[in-house]
Amino acid sequence: MMADSKKQVILMKGIGVSSGIVIGKAYLMDTGVVEPAHYCHLDASDIDREIERFEKALNDSWDQLNRIKKKLEEDRRGKEHISIIDAHLMILKDNMLINDTVKVIKEERVNAEWALHTVLKGVMEYFDKIDDEYLRERSKDIEHIVNRVLVNLTGRKHEPVAEIKTPSIVIARDLTPADTAQMVKGMVLSFLTDVGGKTSHIAIMARSLEIPAVVGLESVTRKAENGDTVIVDGTTGTVIINPSESVIDVYRKRQEKYADYGKALFHYKDLPCETTDGRRIHLMGNMEIAEEIDSLIEHGAEGIGLYRTEYLYLNRKDLPTEEEHVRAYRQLAKRMSPNPAIIRTLDIGGDKSIGGIDMGKEINPALGLRAIRYCLKNVEIFKTQLRGILRASASGKIKVMFPMISGIEEIRRAKAVLEEAKAELKAEGRPFDQGIEIGVMIEIPSAAIIADMVVKEVDFISIGTNDLLQYSLAIDRVNEHVAYLYEPFHPAVLRIIKTVADAANKAGVSVGVCGEMAGEPEYALILLGFGVQVLSMNAFSILRVKRLIRSVSYAEAKKICKTIIGIATAKEVEHYITSKLPGLYKEEFWS
User: Fold this and answer.
1) Of 88, 144, 201, 490, which is the active-site residue?
2) What is the topology classification, in CATH, of domain 44-154?
3) How distant is the alpha carbon of residue 392 from its chain centre?
4) Which of 88, 430, 521, 534 has the fewest CB atoms within 10 Å distance of its CB?
5) Is the dihedral of CA 384, 390, 392, 394 positive or negative?
């Protein structure tokens, strides 16, 4: 592939969401948000016509998504993405979205495009206040669907990604799950978007399809042109537009090494995850949606260490029923059997409404009525989920885990509700695992400080490092002004983790980590040395971490941790670890 020496070389950094290196030609897709016209003071006859236009656009959108769904049902590869398309079809039938738009058309006497745009704006403003990144990203689903309806209202044509005929790097402002679900591997080499985050649906689907991808590039659609040569490094989030021949040569060599490295990793899939001196570590997977299960199994996950159940409550007006809970968890239990699946109970925060749950306004949502606090205040909602978990436990090895525990009283109250649910099911003659294991997430410093008491109440604990860092360092990790302080190597964070691990090991209780730290080799080495026994992560980190575990001794990891616990700054800890890793784990540090 020849570089164009006449064009300016452009280097960009985004968020790498799916690993791999690709060199190819740019294909720009027009997926921009429709800017609707605004017509007001419509006559009564015009209002009726606008409502009819809106209803037709909804029906057209429904038909388009159903056609995509049917194609996916015929394609074995596409079946795992159908649940996301189903979620989008559900949004199209959302009474609140439809009724609010019709109401704006009637009351403000405006055209359908502007009314729908007005409703969307209110929804997006509401979601923007949500602290949790995963839930905040779900607003993109609503935005994608509304944009599809707007495209149909304005008469523009959808540009189907399935019709790309030559191998290309797709570049767009954003891509919908319907777009990514239709991607043909081999034709779509990679994709780049201006927007998006690590927990967006397109990121999840890119990892599932194993297509290298970088999102959050902000201006890639303005800087790249059709036919430009582009290098994508989905591991580092690096994108180079119009690279020189010498740079292309460097990345070709890296591409070959990465391909060899990826193949070599699968050698480890069926090998036990143990250190050179026999310490056994369990590597498990984090998941939100069903289509992630296949990838986790393929990469050797020994179970699910964290199932985030919030997805069941999204994109709907009503709450999920007990039967819906049972179906979701039973499918998970059967697919993962005989390995365990840890189901985290509902973890929503303040100032957000999902599944018919109105949280109300809170001055500081991150510190407000969220997670276990909400569940203990709304016991019937909590018990419905617990009954679903218990009933599904008859189909496989399921464990239940309570999030955001701050003290012993919360654990005891949550366990009491669980016991009530057990008693009800027993009286009804419904089978369940009467010895179901109970765990808690350690995310708040108060729980970490009394970890020696916490471990007496539960069967296992899991450290949620994402929130633990946020609460320990008083940092809003989605605030760009202080995000640089979000530092996993911070000595205080490391000491907190060690305190928790020490308490669990002393009590003979299993201790795991299910935050982002678990999936990075440099942090996994530290967690190993602290005595953590279970690491839970995304599918594509599992084999990298297993290779590390099998390359080091537990004794050496403990020795490294003994040194770093006395180091004063995060930068110094990072420097020490990065100086040690190449000698222990040479294959990971190719250039």
Assistant:
1) 201
2) Enzyme I; Chain A, domain 2 (1.10.274)
3) 24
4) 430
5) negative
Range 505-511, long-range pairs (CB < 8 A, 24+ positions) = 505/531, 506/452, 507/452, 507/455, 507/456, 509/455, 509/458, 509/459, 509/460, 509/461, 510/459, 510/460, 510/461, 510/534, 511/460, 511/461, 511/462, 511/463
Q: Predicted confidence band at 136 (pLDDT cuts at 50, 70, 90)? A: low
Residue count of the chain, please give it: 591
- CA torsion sign for 168, 174, 178, 180 is positive
CATH for 282-436 is 3.20.20.60
Please give the Cα distance from 104 to 96 (Å, whole number).
12
Q: Report the range of poorest mean pLDDT among 393-397, 468-472, 507-511, 579-583.
A: 579-583
- CATH 3.20.20.60 domain extents, the chain: 282-436
For CATH 3.50.30.10, list the domain ranges present in the chain: 10-31+159-247
Q: What is the pLDDT of residues 305-328, one digit of tens each?
A: 999 898 788 666 688 999 999 999
- pTM of structure: 0.69
- Is 273 in the active site? no
Averaged pLDDT, 526-532: 98
What is the rounded CA–CA span in Å between residue 102 and residue 47? 9
Question: Considering 81, 325, 490, 514, which one is annotated as catalytic?
Answer: 514
Catalytic residue check, 514: yes
Return the residue matching tokens 């905040």: 136
Note the pLDDT of residue 589.
Answer: 44
Quick check: 456 and 507 in contact, CB under 8 A?
A: yes
With 60 as the cut, is the pLDDT of residue 384 above it? yes
To the nearest 10°, the Cα dihedral for 188, 297, 237, 551?
A: -130
**What band does 89 get if pLDDT is binned at 50, 70 and 90?**
confident
Average pLDDT, the chain: 85
* Confidence band of 552 (pLDDT split at 50, 70, 90): very high
Q: Which two tokens stand for residue 109?
A: 């006497």
pLDDT of residue 133: 59
Cross-strand partners of 344? 308, 401
Q: How far apart (Å, rounded) are the C-alpha atoms in residues 230 and 130?
A: 35
- Give CATH 1.10.274.10 domain extents, the chain: 44-154
CATH for 10-31+159-247 is 3.50.30.10
HSE-up of 157 (CA within 13 Å, CB side)? 4
Residue 264 has pLDDT above 90, yes or no: no
| pLDDT surpasses 80 at 12 | yes
3-state secondary structure of 22: strand
Closest CA to 460 of 426, 425, 523, 508: 508
- Environment class of 323 (CB within 10 Å of its CB; exposed 0-12, middle 13-18, buried 19+): exposed
What's the pLDDT tens digit per position in 18-28? 888 999 999 88
> Distance of CA 466 to CAs 19, 469, 513, 543, Å?
21, 6, 10, 21
Helix/strand/coil for 149: helix
DSSP H or E segment with residue 58: helix 44-74
